[in-house]
Amino acid sequence: MNDLRKRAEQGYPEQQLELAKAYLMGKGVPQDLEKAAHWYEMAARRGNPEAENQIAYFYQKGIGVPTDPVRAFHWYQLASASGLVWAKVNLGVSYLYGMGVPKNASTARHLFQEAVGNGNGLAAAYLGHMDYFGLGGPVDKAAADKWFVIGSKLHDPIAAYSLGLLYSEYDDHSKDNHRAAELFRFSARKGYILAKHELGRLLVNHPELAKSPQEARTLLLEASGAGLWNSSAVLGALARDGIGEPADAGHAYYWFFLSKLQGGAIAEKVVARDVSVLEQELPDRELAKLSKEAQDRFGQQPKAVMFLSQLGDDGGVQLRVPVILDSTGKTTGD
């Protein structure tokens, strides 16, 4: 580590990048996001495309540096000009949503199309998103479907997830729960949390599609553990109704209370009736114990990251949330 730091201080961009990663991940040094940002920016100033994309993301999200979407856009531009495909996607997102630059859907589409040409499946998911909702042009749901298919064939979990939603949720698309389960399962295997939730929910309603009796519950537990409030709410409903386990008011209250903590006002509105009923049913001492357990668990969890899909106020699925990628191509967020 001393040799790495010495080379970084001497201005070698590859070593600056490696030192930044070490501080970001806490490998060989204590994790320090400010130092990670410093060394990413040093490497970026020496023209390293990966560092340019990463420091752009840091400025986008305020990681180790003050939030500055204009500086983020600047670094995305440089990384994209260097040919980094993920930076091209991020630059397209910046134009699509007006982050650090005026909105320009036409430029965003062009960047996404270039990225798809370089084999990036998430860019195809964005093009599907644009066509489905008519962002920067007319609504074209047939074209959206084709883009989601292309993204899925390029092994992108968000494209597969989005296509699964069309097959399972949207009335203006042909229904095929078997196909939706396959797509959600692929996306879930890639680690996409929303796919785990949707697959778990689909399997609760269609247990004949499950690989095992516990698959749905396992998926929902994983999604809840990642901070997804709606998965916690489903687990509460399962405990309340005795689906997959004996009915248990205490378990139900725990999950509903955790859901409320995770999801804030939206979740509180959804679970309010169940929480109120269970508060009348359970003794005060047990309520206090369960609330404390839920609060402790919540304090140890990350905030859920909702990207291409988000639950609306009415609990319906929407597709309108930006995805920002770090330099590894992994989806990250608040």
TrEMBL record:
Question: Where are the bilayer-spanning segments?
Answer: none
Give the range the annotation lists for the signal sequence: none
Specify the domain of life of the species encoding this protein: Bacteria
Classification via Pfam families: Sel1
- PANTHER family linked to this entry: ERAD-ASSOCIATED E3 UBIQUITIN-PROTEIN LIGASE COMPONENT HRD3 (PTHR11102:SF160), SEL-1-LIKE PROTEIN (PTHR11102)
**Which protein, by its recorded name, is this?**
Sel1 repeat family protein
